[in-house]
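In response to reviewer comment 3 from the previous cycle, which asked for concrete evidence that the modeling workflow produces usable outputs, we include below a single protein chain processed end to end. The sequence was submitted unchanged, and the resulting structure tokens are shown without manual editing.
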Amino acid sequence: MAKVRIEGRCDPRWKRVRELFEHGFESGAELGAGLSVFVGGREVIDLWAGYTDKERTRPWQRDTLANVYSTTKGITAIAAHQLVERGELELDAPVARYWPEFAQSGKAAIPVRMLLNHRAGLAAVAEPLQPDDIFDWSKMTRALERQAPWWQPGAEHGYHALTYGWLVGELIRRVSGMSVGRYVREHIAAPLGAEFWIGLPEELDARVADLQQGPIATDNPTLMERMTAEPNGVLAKAFGNPPLLLMSPNTRSWRAAELAAANGHTTAPALARIYGALANGGELDGVRILRRETIERARAEESYGADRVLTLTTRIGLGFFLPPENEPLGPNPRTFGHGGAGGSLGVADPEANVGFGYVMNLMHTGMWLADPRPRALLDAVYEGV
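The workflow returned the following structure tokens.
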């Protein structure tokens, strides 16, 4: 394999990060990827390399857009927290105050907080859905209005893999009058100069990296095996109704939809810029997206332990994942962010003032919360902090 050229720049203090990034391509662990890191409100690493297609005909560029799956959830959470700051949304108010139809099927008392901390018991829709229903916002929100909780709300937590997007996104829509995609563009991405799309315009398709399936770890039962064993269980319904695992993210219909839990498209510099602002007290280059006290509340632990859906140990704040003891993200247990299926990762560490963004197109799959590739890169970042 020809040596891949690493583009961009890297402060000499983080030479080890560049070496690790380059090794990912030399080892075949990467097809195309971008990495950006902010320290102290300043971008110190901005690297990219590889290709956006499996035929290796289109080089990855600094502005290459990648589908980041659940890394989208963290950005959706920022939108919700902005509305809380403005007094338009209250974390401990019933969801039904803003979304009256939500009160059906015993959900009248569920507070807004439980949609963000994954304790609402609404991790899946039980009634059969058609594949294209995933692209129909109204159909999905109506199904969630009818859905009864899978467990007593608040008693346990379980990852709301897809439903998080419609639940939190519908609250954003009801309160702000904007779709979640428009809200994120106007109130988070554009002010920061950080491109993040939930609902990608067709004219940007040429800049998008095609996702490709890479290695699948076999040391634990796969999600598919567990779903097959219990086809009507919450895990099977969470990922298979509609069938998320069978959906191609490389289609126009996927890219165009507003899936606020799963189909954000962004660049590594944009993702790191957003998390760099969160690490820097909520402000970057004179633009504030959240207050410091809001960030502290958002990263406070709300759920920790065995996840009812993933059957992994998860630790969750209000819309953000926190590192459990067995899967640290650097030396600080109060680091927060969100990863996505296949490998993407956005992280903020306010104590060290580190913002981290990594995107890729060769998907690695395993029973982990954060892909080993960005975790190793983040560890190397701390060596230079």
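Residues 71-85 form the longest helix (15 residues). We consider this sufficient to address the reviewer's concern, and the full set will be provided in the supplementary archive.
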